[in-house]
Amino acid sequence: MKKLFLTIFLLGLSIFGNSQTINLTFIAEDLNGDTLAIDSLNIFNISVGCDTTLIGSSTSIDIPVIVGVEDKFTDFKIQQNFPNPFAGSTIVEMTTPKRDNAYIILFDNLGRKLSEYSKIIDRGTHSFRITTNVHGLTILSVRMGGKFQSIKMINTSNCKYDNSISYIGKNYNELKFSPSIDFMFFAGDSLQYTAFSDGYNNEIFSDNPGGDTTYVFPMSPDNMAEVITDTATEITGTTAISGGEVISNGGSDVTARGVCWDTASNPTILNNHTSDSSGIGHFVSYITQLTEGTLYYTRAYAINLTDTSYGNELSFTTLDFATVTTNTVINITQTSATSGGNVTSDGGSSVTSRGVCWDTASNPTTSNSHTSNGSGIGEFISYLNGLTCGTTYYTRAYAINGAGTAYGNELTFTTDPGLPTVTTSNITNIGLNSVTSGGNVTSDGGENVTSRGICWGTSPNPTISGNHTSNGSGLGTFVSNVTGLTTNTLYYIRAYATNSVGTVYGEELGFTTLLNPCAGTPTVTYEGHVYNTVQIGTQCWLRENLNVGVKIDGNSNQTDNSVIEKWCYNNLESNCDAYGALYQWNEIMQYVNTPAAQGICPPGWHIPTNSEYATLEIYASSESDKLRETGTAHWDSENGATNDFNFTAVGAGHRTSGFDLLKNILNLWTSDEQSVNEAWHYDLNNSVNPIISGYSLKESGFSVRCIKN
Predict the structure, then answer these.
(1) Which end of the chain is less enclosed by CB atoms within 10 A, N or C?
(2) Is there a domain that residue 211 lies in?
(3) Average pLDDT over residues 359-386
(4) What is the side-by-side strand order in the sheet with 203-207?
(5) Strand, coil or helix: what is 676?
(6) Spatial separation of the C-alpha atoms in residues 539 and 431, rounded to whole Å
(7) What's the Rg (C-alpha) of the chain?
(8) With left for phi above 0 and alpha for psi between -120 and 50, is residue 390 left, alpha or beta?
(9) What's the structural domain count of the chain?
(10) What is the pLDDT of residues 382-438, one digit of tens each?
């Protein structure tokens, strides 16, 4: 077995005054674990930016390691220029703790850019010369490693120098020590090792040795692909971005590549891994489903015809959630409360937002109602507003950092009870003496609703101290039917709901009861007959079928001869007296076709239209029983007739091809045509309860009821 040893001596510069030695041993092995010869080894100091190479049989080298001296490179800093004020030219020194890019801009006092300069500089102190032709105040700004600093400088010269920034060099005096060789090693520096062995791919990994260490290089044959692992970035609690670069395919196509990871060292594709296309070149890998606050090891991999090769192993730790507790809820009212929390740990990344979330369901999140109460660790107070009275809420404090959103312990509280919430339903079925409304109790205010209904009066804002209904209790909709009202009168109405806290009212609505169209007209005398009237809703009807005109034989048609002609069932005048006469459509319309024409009706009355019969049908709920005369005097059978509206319909029968269906049906003409030869009618039948509408030939003989204009 051939080993390559590197021995690093710590010079006697420590605060203890004693020499210290770090022994580094390097071993190369093939994929079977057999030891290989290392032809050369390159050691690169990532922190400082210098390197050295061990060749062939070299087994040790003395490298000065600087310890115990004042470390002036702990943070980026720009020194005030010297001299200041200056005459045209001055020197500025800046210190950086690591190798990084320095971006320098010179501005005048109005913020106009005079010159800019960019250079990658190593760890340490560096000097720059600044020259300007601007007399008076100038500003030098430097951005490095995501940090930004600036200084003010005063030029006393009026000479026309060029505006420029130039690099002078590194100030080694800051080390307080002159190394004997070019390679420098500071205690804590990061070193990168690259091993070379004939017939094998180069292997690279990094470390910052703090004591005796043995490193083993797993060398893959040079017919295997060669891949380098990228450092993980954008690390969260459950995700990270890595990747790699396939720098050689080993002589055969790379068919798969990606990154594998595990919580144990040396992960392989048997562990979690990504698949990121194929071929040589750089690739990006998105690592997901990680566990918060966990150390992971990653290696890029590449698969070719020979085998699977792995890149250098790197590691990262996922961010952890913040720790937060929820404060007890206090100052509870009907609509508000006070809570808060305490962020006791930021989990390793800054807490960018914190507050309290709440909902009526358990486990509220920031997608529910929530407060925003600053950032960082420590206690905070949250004011919860817009709550509903008498309601139980669940609340949790939350804290958001790079790992995600953490929640505190869940607490519950109930807001103070309040008045119910009720709305007034639309007003319907306005009649002469009645109306229908109601309401909807949408919230009980946290206490049971014991009474609900509507109240009304002739003055605005009626209350339960006046007229009101009682329509049960609890939540939900209810219907209120109001009776005993005065015709043609303006009323105000609103719903109410009562709980232990008090009574609340819905919005106020107004309506006016109907004027009785039959008022003052109990009967109508026309052509020697007295007809009774009946009020149904907003309509005033004759209560009997019309019986006017001269009886003609049922075998003859009624004609336009300035004489009203009629048919009596079976040509008997007694049937006209009992059931009313039968007429052809043109005769009742007096040979016009205008809807709502007076026709053969008395003055101030007319033949009903289709829509007027439809309104009557709505009042009667489309039930003919509510309009038909009770008993069997004018019907073959009573069959459920109730005559609720006193319409007193009788079974007058009809004439089509002959007289038919006396005491079985009442056909009532409307004033609406269906066609040149047909017209609409409404039918009431003692064997079928629903009111039926249809159209028939105008030459048919049907009954007529008149309606008041």
Answers:
(1) N
(2) no
(3) 97
(4) 50-55, 40-45, 191-196, 203-207
(5) coil
(6) 11
(7) 51
(8) left
(9) 6
(10) 999 999 888 999 999 999 998 889 999 999 999 999 999 999 999 998 888 899 999
